Amino acid sequence: MDRLKSPARLMIVSDLDHTMVDHHDAENLSLLRFNALWESYYRHDSLLVFSTGRSPTLYKELRNEKPMITPDITIMSVGTEITYGKSMVPDDGWEEFLNQKWDRNIVMEEASKFSELTRQAETEQRPHKISFYVKKDKAQHVTESLSEILKKRGLDVKIIYSGGIDLDILPQGAGKGQALAYLLKKFETEGKRPVNTLVCGDSGNDAELFSIPGVYGVMVSNAQEELLQWHAKNVKDNPKIIHATERCASGIIEAIGHFKLGTNLSPRNVSDIAKDGENASPGHEIVKMNLLCEKWRRAEVEKSEQFLAGLKAVYDPSGTYIHPSGSEHHIGEHVNILKESFGDKKGKQYRIWVDGVLATQIGSDAWLVKFDKWESCGEKRQGCVNTVILRKKDSDRLTWVHVHQTKLEQSGKDDWLL
């Protein structure tokens, strides 16, 4: 959060499974569309928050499985854990708040008396969250009975049923909605409350997000019946909440446009990305060039000298490129290397995405840009940290003066291209 000196232009708070991440989209296209949009137009002055029922263990597993970018804030374990940044620094104040009228041992003792409850994996049992599975027809009885018992024992708890099977027991002050309210209050205190906040969800444990005053909300088209019923009963007439016509991340993109919160045209949806020179921002330039490289290797652009000449014009002839292996080249030589790789990933699940694009202006016409670049091909994935110097060539173009790549993580053959 400290990277923003003023209030965020937009804060997106999104659930992950079946909201930001579409588990029925084998190519992850909607997620990749969102990634490109965010890094191009929003990363520099906005905040991305992932709010998930997953524990830290399962959250990290998902990040290894899907082409996800890094959020500024991560809310996990159904709103019981808040962490910041790439290193996931915990919010100690939130932990102290949740300790009020909460005793994990008493909750476990009483819950164990219900034969209808099946304990979830140990990774899902957290300091302020105890999780079970329960059949749908037993859920209401168990929830009401257990709530009454725990109240008599002096605890103030919240029981959330979602997904038609998951039952989570939390402190009363916890939950996705309360975690968001806590963050907004924290921003308010610092004089940095986001200009606009968009919440996104698909299931019952996301309902609280839509109850926060003043936020925009989108229920993705594939939202579960439990959330749609809650919406119809509680906030049906709220014009700031919509049920999208698109699935998952595509529904989030749809909502950005519907509420006029900013551009919602992802670079991945631009028909001729090579000619898209309207935005000369560093973020857009980084996304565009990496997307062009992906399309070239997938043979999704025309193989022509004109295309290669256009790429070469972007690089400063005297610039340098340091490969992840440590070898150093003239930056323009990369185009010659790229020329030989046309179509080498055709028909394969090959994708490139960038993450955490951070640009710092170091002169009147120059920027130092840092970001992580990832390539995946099937189940293989490799990543590298990039440091790039861009200089404005004219009113429409940015020139790549220097590129330094350092291996972040890799799997399989080392076949890096810029």
UniProtKB/TrEMBL annotation:
Cofactor: Mg(2+)
One GO biological process term: sucrose biosynthetic process
Sucrose phosphatase-like domain sequence ranges: 9-260
The keyword ATP-binding belongs to this UniProt entry's keyword annotation: no
Domain Sucrose-phosphatase C-terminal, first and last residues per copy: 282-409
Pathway: Glycan biosynthesis; sucrose biosynthesis; sucrose from D-fructose 6-phosphate and UDP-alpha-D-glucose: step 2/2
Reaction(s) the record says it catalyses: sucrose 6(F)-phosphate + H2O = sucrose + phosphate
Name of this protein: Sucrose-phosphatase
